[in-house]
Specification:
By secondary structure, this protein is of the alpha+beta class. It has four helices and nine strands. The chain has a domain of 115 residues. Helix 3 packs across helix 4. It is elongated. The termini are far apart.
Length: 188
Amino acid sequence: MRSFSAIMRAALLAAGLLALACPEARAENWVFYAGSAEPANREQTLIDWYQTNSLKPVPEDKAAIRHYYDEESVAANSPFGGGTVRVWGKSVVQGQVKSYDETMREIEREEEKRLKRKLTTLDTARLFPQAVNRAVKEITIQYEMNCDEKEFYIYEANSYDLTGAKMTRQLNMDMANWVPIQARSVME
């Protein structure tokens, strides 16, 4: 007779493989956990904000950015407290932003005016990160938190514009890049 633990591991493995094979089949259940003000350095991306722990909590009604986690994605390595937990999070910028295309056209006009010439392909490529930063409406991040060490690691981050179009996908394969969770931060 199989132990309960072995049966649970097999069931979790099967569910995980199904979720990886069919990510669109997984239901999302986003739960609000914090609001934050917009950081002073708007040149940084939301991922930078997470990695530098510069997001400080504010009440939901005063939040420039609202943070959620997907309740269905929470996966702990132990049924007991402590250890590590992997989860998908989502941050949504409140207020008006433009689509990526509108934002890029606006930045190109500004840059042509500043340079007093037509932009080259290299100029346009250089403007891509700035356009993404201005146009980001939502970011989803899969991260793992080490509850015992009070640190986290970002596995993947995706940014979306106002229309829901994915602008960037960043995968982090450097498992040594754990970030300490700062006191009084959104990550805490």
